Amino acid sequence: MHNNFYASGFLYHPPSQQILLQQKVSIDNMSSEWLLFGGVYQEKEDPEELFRNLVLDLLDMEIREVLPVYSYLNENSDEFQYIVYSQLGELRNFSSKNGQTFGWFTFKEVLKLKVTEQTKHDIVVGQRVIEAAMRKSLGEHTFQ
User: Structural domain tally of the chain?
Assistant: First the structure.
């Protein structure tokens, strides 16, 4: 594993097919971009543990299984970027906390949100991974 890495991801609610994203309130109270939950490597953490700790800190919620989407080397920062997700059985609303708002969106709605191109790409790849896992669980052929 690369020494420096950044892990980010989203929570996914299968019955509604929605993902949870966060939005940080800007200083001038203008709406800012919607983001994945993310953080920088802390000593002795792996990407899954880092994501678990982020969700615990931000949402006061423990998650069990963290599933990989993909990883890549960010050429701008020379850090590996790990994209992950975790499934939730219950669709919960989360109150704003520390200048951050949280919102549930379908994959189609995400395409209309104010997000970076990289975030949009990460979410689209995440959607494909989730759909492939669903097809595989139904016994359909996948290219995994």
Answer: 1
